[in-house]
């Protein structure tokens, strides 16, 4: 059993058919394929070419946020302010670029900066003052949304005012993959390298795995945690610009109450909510799976209420599986301890 | 012998002279001297509270001395920072290492300084090097498995491999064998010898003298914060070491007093609980100490918990002074005069964050209360009374019990129950992990309690303790009482045969 879990959780990238099969990512991929095939059989329109690009476009925002949130969760923290940051970034970016007549690239730059600032504030409070991230970012969730309301003051920006390039961006695709999703893939690719092949990323795993030990071995807990929040905020800011492009309208209620969808995606993707475990690839797959499920439920004509309930169920199942696996390894450890005690006496 | 003499002629690495350190009013180190030479395995011995942990922590960079000098290889040793200690070649292996459970062993070895190439972390190289380190130590561990689920012994090996990869010259081991099985201890000793062959010096703290004599070259014994003896292992005997440690002869241990044995205080009849134990019948009289011996896992603690009412039982009865106790109601048991000092004081016996006085007053709140309120003064006076009687060492009554040494914590649990003036006291492994001196005091307290007419049921895995303290001995094996022995008939052999299930036919 222990070996099995080791295979599940190890960050070993050696190509090995057995380990590959046991990896969490493979499991999600299998569920993904299963759901897609089953739904297509019932409703053939579900996975036509158009449906697939649409699906990826619709996953872009949550995917981007999931990629952003993953390092934070791996470091045993949470950022609940992401949806507020996304909404605020969308409105503020619209305000700034419309005022200056700017295009796509400056828009993303502005959005990223807005998000980075929010992330930095969260980061200082959590990493610097060592306040619990749950409380800090819950506060930030309301404060940012409040500022958003104040600032927007019932105004909204619509497609006529927003730059046309930006509006087109959400329609453009390469080989059927929307540009926006390509951007997410690029960010994810960087994230994968960062989390797996730099000391910075590994330190985040260490911090989430055993916080006191991270202090003892001299890991720079402050700067690591701080930048994880900045990364998360930055991607939330970028997601805000994606929002502009996709919905072509923004007001102060943009992306309201969507933070828990992101958390759900990350957790379904195999990132342990208690830190130390999980990958960006997994989180992204989790986001796709969530979207596919929603699509499937719509295609099957399931009512809105049940869609949400099924999301929740999926979350519970994902966490349940994690718990059962780790509980089994714990019982095993206890048994070993008992045997040892017997031997001593 | 040859090894030992070689060690004494090699150059001195650590030289500590007149080390002095106090924490508030408590003096932890009082002019302690210590010399560690290159390539030796050096045992640092002493009872709990003798100052060896403090000394080790100074060397590890956790504490800074208030007085005295430390030189390392002739140069002054820079104190007060674990990182600095490490960069001066000193590492500590703690009793329970804190690895990163989700990371692979290879990464645990190289944490914070992972090997890199142009594109980032070089995983295959890191695995290979970790594997090489494990091989060097003669231990078969898979570097690409995660640390979660690793035995403590293996975790220590990972820490030692890490020390090697850091090129540590001095490895401090703080009671590494306390939680290991015999075979794991043997393996650790082999690892220690490997380290010695590589020219490393090892400081080994252990309470098990047989281990010390099996593997060490040199001994330093501490008592009350001072160094009382420095000797080659080959020049001393276990008895010498014990004398140095306690400062007096062993016969002072187990101060069994004569007491008048009276009526039956606790009577257990046919107590059974599915899968835990079956048909347990025993009696404990006033003034009597009765031991419940057996192997760990034979069901002794479960019986104690059932008698006290923490767990319920399926059939049988428990009578206290002739009155039947309802099962599963510890509150009623306490009110009827029963007390239980549990096996695990940290988890079950104490509120670790709460103060000494809070803990001692826990069971007395109703009696201390005036108009429903308990004053701190009444708690403190209770604490002073029992602290004095049991000689508990605590900085002040408000200090969290967490800060006390293991022995004093155990005395605090005892004080809590003595304060309720119970008729029957059940003590479960009362002296586990307590130093010799405190043990003796603890035994004296139990003896006195018995002499004053209390009935004591003592669960113990330590045969000398059982033989030294008990008037009568019950032996348990796999959930059943298999033997009853009187004080004069009991021998270690008889108890062990019964406990291991070999004497079953006779009883």
From TrEMBL, chain A:
Protein localization: Cell membrane
Keywords linked to the UniProt accession: Cell inner membrane, Cell membrane, Membrane, Transmembrane, Transmembrane helix, Transport
Cited Pfam families: BPD_transp_2
UniProt keyword annotation of NAD present: no
Transmembrane segments: 26-43, 55-75, 82-102, 108-127, 134-152, 174-195, 226-249, 255-274, 281-303
Primary site of residence: membrane
Protein name: Unannotated protein
Organism whose genome encodes this protein: freshwater metagenome
UniProtKB/TrEMBL annotation, chain B:
Topology within the bilayer: Peripheral membrane protein
Location in the cell: Cell membrane
Gene3D superfamilies referenced in this protein's UniProt entry, alphabetically: P-loop containing nucleotide triphosphate hydrolases (3.40.50.300)
Signal peptide coordinates: none
Main location: membrane
Gene Ontology CC: plasma membrane
Protein name as catalogued: Unannotated protein
Organism listed in the record: freshwater metagenome
């Amino acid at each position: 059993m222990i070996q099995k879990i080791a295979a599940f959780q190890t960050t070993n990238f050696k190509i090995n058919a057995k380990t590959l099969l046991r990896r969490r990512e493979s499991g999600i991929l299998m569920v993904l394929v299963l759901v897609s095939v089953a739904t297509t059989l019932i409703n053939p329109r579900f996975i036509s070419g158009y449906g697939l690009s649409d699906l990826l476009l619709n996953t872009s925002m949550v995917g981007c946020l999931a990629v952003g949130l993953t390092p934070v969760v791996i470091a045993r923290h949470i950022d609940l302010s992401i949806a507020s940051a996304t909404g605020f970034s969308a409105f503020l970016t619209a305000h700034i670029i419309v005022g200056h007549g700017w295009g796509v690239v400056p828009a993303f730059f502005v959005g990223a900066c807005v998000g980075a600032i929010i992330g930095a504030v969260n980061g200082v409070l959590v990493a610097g003052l060592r306040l619990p991230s749950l409380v800090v970012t819950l506060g930030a969730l309301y404060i940012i949304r409040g500022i958003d309301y104040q600032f927007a003051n019932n105004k909204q920006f619509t497609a006529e005012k927003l730059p046309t390039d930006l509006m087109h961006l959400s329609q453009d695709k390469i080989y059927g993959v929307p540009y926006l999703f390509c951007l997410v893939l690029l960010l994810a690719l960087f994230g994968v390298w960062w989390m797996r092949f730099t000391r910075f990323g590994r330190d985040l795993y260490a911090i989430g795995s055993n916080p006191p030990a991270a202090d003892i071995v001299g890991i720079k807990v402050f700067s690591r945690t701080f930048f994880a929040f900045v990364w998360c905020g930055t991607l939330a800011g970028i997601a805000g610009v994606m929002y502009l492009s996709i919905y072509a309208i923004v007001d102060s209620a943009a992306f309201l109450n969507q933070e828990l969808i992101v958390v759900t995606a990350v957790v379904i993707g195999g990132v342990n909510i208690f830190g130390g475990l999980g990958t960006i690839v997994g989180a992204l797959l989790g986001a796709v799976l969530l979207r596919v499920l929603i699509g499937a439920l719509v295609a099957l004509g399931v009512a809105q209420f049940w869609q949400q309930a099924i999301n929740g169920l999926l979350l519970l199942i994902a966490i349940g599986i994690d718990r059962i696996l780790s509980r089994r390894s714990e019982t095993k450890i206890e048994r070993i301890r008992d045997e040892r005690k017997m031997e001593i006496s | 012998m040859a090894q030992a003499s070689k060690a004494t002629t090699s150059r001195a690495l650590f030289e500590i002279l007149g080390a002095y350190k106090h924490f508030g009013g408590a003096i932890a180190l009082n002019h302690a001297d210590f010399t560690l030479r290159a390539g030796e395995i050096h045992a640092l011995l002493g009872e709990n509270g003798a100052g060896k942990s403090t000394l080790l922590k100074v060397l590890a960079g956790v504490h800074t001395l208030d007085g005295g000098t430390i030189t390392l290889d002739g140069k002054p040793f820079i104190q007060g920072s674990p990182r600095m200690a490490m960069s001066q070649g000193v590492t500590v292996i703690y009793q329970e290492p804190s690895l990163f459970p989700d990371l692979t062993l290879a990464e645990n070895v190289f944490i914070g300084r992972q090997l890199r190439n142009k594109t980032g972390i070089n995983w295959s190289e890191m695995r290979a090097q970790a594997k090489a380190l494990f091989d060097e130590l003669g231990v078969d561990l898979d570097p690409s498995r995660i640390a979660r689920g690793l035995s403590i012994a293996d975790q220590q090996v990972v820490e030692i491999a890490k020390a090697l990869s850091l090129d540590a010259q001095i490895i401090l081991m703080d009671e590494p064998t306390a939680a290991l099985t015999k075979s794991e201890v043997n393996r650790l000793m082999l690892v220690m010898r490997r380290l010695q062959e590589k020219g490393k010096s090892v400081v080994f703290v252990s309470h098990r003298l047989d281990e010390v004599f099996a593997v060490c070259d040199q001994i330093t014994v501490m008592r009350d914060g001072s160094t009382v003896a420095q000797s080659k292992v080959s020049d001393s005997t276990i008895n010498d070491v014990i004398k140095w440690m306690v400062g007096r002869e062993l016969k002072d241990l187990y101060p069994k007093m004569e007491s008048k044995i009276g009526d039956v205080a606790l009577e257990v009849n046919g107590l059974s609980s599915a899968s835990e134990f079956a048909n347990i019948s025993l009696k404990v009289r006033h003034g009597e100490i009765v031991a419940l011996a057996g192997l760990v896992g034979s069901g002794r603690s479960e019986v104690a918990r059932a008698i006290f009412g923490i767990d319920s039982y399926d059939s049988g009865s428990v009578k206290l002074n002739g009155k039947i106790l309802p099962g599963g109601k510890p509150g009623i048991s306490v009110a009827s005069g029963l007390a239980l000092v549990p096996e695990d004081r940290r988890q079950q016996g104490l509120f670790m964050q709460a103060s000494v006085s809070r803990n001692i007053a826990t069971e007395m709140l109703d009696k201390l209360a005036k108009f429903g309120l308990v004053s701190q003064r009444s708690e403190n006076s209770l604490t002073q009374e029992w602290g004095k009687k049991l000689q508990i060492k605590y900085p002040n009554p408000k200090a969290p019990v967490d800060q006390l040494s293991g022995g004093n914590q155990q005395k605090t649990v005892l004080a809590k129950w003595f304060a309720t003036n119970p008729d029957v006291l059940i003590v479960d492994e009362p002296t586990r992990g307590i130093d010799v001196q405190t043990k003796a005091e603890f035994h004296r307290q139990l003896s006195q309690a018995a002499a004053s007419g209390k009935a004591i049921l003592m669960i113990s895995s330590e045969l000398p303790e059982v033989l030294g303290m008990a008037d009568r001995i019950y032996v348990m094996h796999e959930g059943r009482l298999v033997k009853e022995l009187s004080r004069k008939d009991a021998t270690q052999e008889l108890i062990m045969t019964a406990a291991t299930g070999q004497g079953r036919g006779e009883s």
